[in-house]
Amino acid sequence: MKRAKYILPVFFATLIYVLISMTLGPNGIRCINQMEEQKRILSKQTSDIQNINSELELELTALMNDKAVIAAYARKLDYVSDDELLVKINGLKPAQTTLYDTGTVIRHEEPSFLGEKYCKIISAFLGFMLFVIIFLYDVNKGNIVFGKNKRPLVAGIPVYDLPQVE
Questions:
Q1: Residue 153's beta-bridge partner residues?
Q2: Contacts of 20 by beta carbon, 8 Å cutoff, 6+ apart
Q3: Which helix (H) or strand (E) holds 88?
C-alpha cells in the first residue's frame, strides 16, 4: 500500500489533462462557446439580409407589374407625363431613395484554444510535482532512507550504535 500511492500522480495528471482539454482545449467548452457566438452573429446577419432581399423582390415585382408604382418611381427620377405641368421650386432638398443597410462584413475568426501539446505538458508537470511532494514526504517521514542511514529494528525497537562507557 505504501508504494501504491505513487500511482496517484499518474491519475492526478490524467485528471488535470482531461479537465484542461475539456475547458480550454481545441474541442473544449470555451472553443465551442466562441463558435456558437459566431454562429449567432452570422444567423442574425443572414436573417437581416433575407429580409432586405424579400423587400427588394416585392419592390421589383411592383415595378414590373403595377403602373401606379412605375409612375411614382418615374416621378422620383424627375420624369413627367404628357399631361402634367412641371413646376420647379428652388431650395428644396432632393428626395432621398431608400438605402438598405446590409450590415458589416463578417469574417470567420478562428477560436482561441490551448493546444493539446500544452495541455499534456501542464498535466505532466503537475503530476510530476505531486510525485515529488509525495516522495519528499516519504523521505521526511523516514519511509525512504538512502545509503547507510538505515537503523536496525529489533521487534519494533530501534537499536543505536553508541559507544559503551565503562
A1: 158
A2: 114, 119, 122, 123
A3: none
